[in-house]
What we know:
Elements: H1 2-15, H2 17-22, H3 46-84, H4 87-140, H5 145-173, E1 179-187, E2 197-204, E3 207-215, E4 221-223, E5 227-230, E6 238-246, E7 249-258, E8 269-274, E9 282-288
Antiparallel strand pairs: 1-5, 1-9, 2-3, 2-6, 3-4, 6-7, 8-9
Helix pairs in contact: 3-4, 4-5
Amino acid sequence: xxxxxxxxxxxxxxxxxxxxxxxxSLKSPKAYSSLxxxxxxxxxxxxxxxxIFEALKKxxxxxxxxxxxxxxxxxxRQKDTKRNSRLAFYYDLDKQIRTVERYIRKLEFHIxxxxxxxxxxxxxxxxxxxxxxxxxxxxxxxxxxxxxESLVELYKNFQECTEDMCFIEGxxxxxxxxxxxxxKGLVGFAxxxxxxxxxxxxxxxxxKWRLKGKIETDDSQTWDEEEKIFIPNLHExxxxxxxxxxxxxxxxxxxxxxDSINFFxxxxxxxIVDITELGTIKLQLEVLW
Length: 289
């Protein structure tokens, strides 16, 4: 029983908490407010992180393929232009090609960094599961001084793995990019009347977007804001709350949540969500990643 524990401790110490972080070229710790000294460590969610990682990698590869296709097209035009000796146009194409090449290199580095972070996350996840299994095995055996000391050490390593996983989650969030939300309006058919006023609150974790709109006499809609940038979050979903404003009174129309897993793509995504249970009022947004 002690031999596997020794192996676990040796493997754990050979990785080292400091080595997990030193291998990552991270931004200032201020970027990770949840990871400051004395902060409460949340519970890692490996399945959710896996879903986001797969969606993020797929989206980044889509961008990479699109820019690679653009580079191939520009390179083909450059060859034709060179034969025709149109030097001014040739140099302009060369400048465009160099710009696309630089962007492709940035994308490739971005993908490799995301893969590196996720690989480190999976290692810590497996170590954490190993510590949990060993704790369970020791709890079933007779209690001795050696087993109690091993349990204390296992608990310490479990906590360290948990902290490292949370740190890597924070580092991974930095690479998720931005969501640009555009307000497209409410859809309600007979439920929307000229003069009606509504307030929409879009929330993602601590980020909020509060905007007010009015139904005009020609059935068009005016909103005091039309676009907002959100920073993606590994664990939070979009929460959308719509309220009807009636003078000094307010009437809650509905509250819905929306997962962001499908937004990591090159194309703008149209979102139409049912605000009421029967779908008599819908909210339409557009998300560009």
